[in-house]
Amino acid sequence: MVSCQMIEVIELFKSVQGEGPSCGQPALFVRLRRCQLRCSWCDSRFSWDSKDPDYTTYTTWDEKKLAYELKSDAKGRIVVITGGEPLIWKRQLVKMLSYLRRVPRIEIETNGTIPVGELAQCRNVYFNVSPKLSSSGNEGLKRINEEALRGFAYTYRAVFKFVVTSPLDINEIEILERQRLSPIWVMPEGVTVESQIKGLKWLAPIAIQRNWSISLRLHILAFGNRRRT
């Protein structure tokens, strides 16, 4: 985790939540910089890849100032903290969220490798945990932390959302499900309308059979694969 007192923010924008149980709800997004994983299909590489030309385009915020910016801009929207990997900034987030207790719903999107820690005490915070499967291309990196994943499950405010690239991923999800991860959401990988629909056609029957929830990427269907800033 980063120990400095400032938070590196790569973008702040209004949109709708595109994935998971809050899909379609008006949302205020704050995207934090840096990630310890390197997913081959990542569509926000600019938040962590130093080779991306946008990687150096970011602003630094004091936790309190960022909290008040989010509070004033939320106005009936859920707040979604995404990345990168937001829990790299866990110390700063704990302090920032102390100023946002009256925001009804805050969602943190995380890969689940960093333990939830003090964030579990934030009762208005929900976790969209997206463990990375072997198809994500994170060779040599610790992409699964079973103890950390169980910690998120025990908050009872987490969902576990898997990006699925092919039927070969299903067995790996079933193995993780046995670790008492629930509820399970699955989502076809893809950054075009065509790839989302193609993935849905084969993934939906599998999800129905296993009693999993399924999500598309609404923002891809609505806006295409482009930044919303």
Question: Could you write a compact summary of the structure shown?
Answer:
This protein is α/β, with parallel strands linked by helices. It contains 6 helices and 9 strands, in the order βββαβαββαβαβαβα.
List the helices and strands and how they pair.
Elements: E1 6-16, E2 26-32, E3 59-62, H1 63-74, E4 78-82, H2 90-97, E5 106-110, E6 125-129, H3 146-153, E7 158-164, H4 170-177, E8 184-188, H5 193-210, E9 213-214, H6 218-223
Parallel strand pairs: 2-4, 4-5, 5-6, 6-7, 7-8, 8-9
Antiparallel strand pairs: 1-2, 1-3
Helix pairs in contact: 1-2
Architecture overview:
With 229 residues, this protein is of the alpha/beta class. It has a single domain, classed as Aldolase class I (TIM Barrel, Alpha-Beta Barrel). Helices cover 26% and strands 22% of the residues. It contains 6 helices and 9 strands; from the N terminus they run βββαβαββαβαβαβα. The protein has a 9-stranded mixed sheet with strand order 3-1-2-4-5-6-7-8-9. Strand 6, helix 3 and strand 7 form a beta-alpha-beta unit. The protein starts with 5 loop residues before the first strand and ends in a 6-residue tail after the last helix.
